[in-house]
Design a protein that fits this description.
The chain is an alpha/beta fold and 212 residues long. It has five helices and ten strands, in the order ααββββαββαβββαβ. Strand 2 and strand 3 form a beta hairpin. It is globular, with a radius of gyration of 26 Å.
């Protein structure tokens, strides 16, 4: 009889332990499923729901610059590094004069860049770039209006924060244009540190943008 009670109690304990293990396994499975969904399904949905036409219109409304996008792809790695890859990016002034174009822009950031108001530059690589630095007859850079005119509210964000990080430029051509002069400079590769990027962005005095 005592052995029966002991065996029964042992069975209860074993059943309880098995139940706890099963519960833990279920919770872990749910977490892993959510994790896998986040790093695979979410980027897929965001990528396929992204409208280049809608972005181009909002960018024009926010900056008065004409933009064209080839494609945008979002990827989230297992360590939650979020990679935004833009191909065929082009900017023009409102008078249709060229300003900037890049074959590929790859930003490594965090998920907050997709779902929040903070854009952390973990790493930024810009390849196959052309930039036209134009000085107007009055001596003012033609792009001088851009930081003050940039209105993040056109993207549905009252304010955004940019956390500076390293930037690498590969295969770039810069054209320096004034009313009386023209000069070209080719850059095979140029690296900018986090502090250099922060100093540059802070000097532009963007509206509705906080630089860290």
């Amino acid at each position: 009889m005592a052995n029966y009670r002991n065996n029964r109690q042992h069975s209860k304990n074993s059943g309880s332990e098995n139940g706890q293990k099963s519960l833990v396994l279920i919770i872990i499975s749910l977490i892993l499923f959510a994790y896998a969904g986040f790093i695979s399904i979410v980027p897929y949905i965001v990528t396929n729901s992204f409208s280049t036409a809608r972005f181009e219109k909002k960018f024009y409304d926010a900056t008065s610059l004409i933009t064209e996008l080839g494609s945008v792809q979002y990827t989230i790695k297992p360590n939650f590094d979020t990679i935004i890859t833009v191909r065929g990016f082009e900017l023009k002034y409102i008078d249709d004069q060229p300003l900037f174009n890049a074959g590929t822009i790859e930003l490594t950031t965090t998920p907050a860049a997709i779902f929040g108001n903070t854009f952390k530059i973990k790493n930024l690589v810009i390849e196959n770039t052309n930039y036209e630095d134009q000085i107007l007859p009055d001596g003012v850079n033609k792009l001088a209006f851009f930081p003050g005119a940039f209105d993040t509210r056109k993207f549905g964000k009252r304010n955004i924060t940019i956390v500076s990080g390293p930037v690498k430029i590969r295969n770039a051509k810069i054209k320096y244009i004034t009313p009386n002069t023209y000069k070209e400079e080719s850059i095979r590769e140029k690296n900018y540190s986090k502090s250099e990027v922060k100093e540059f962005l802070s000097s532009l005095y963007f509206s509705h943008v906080k630089i860290k």
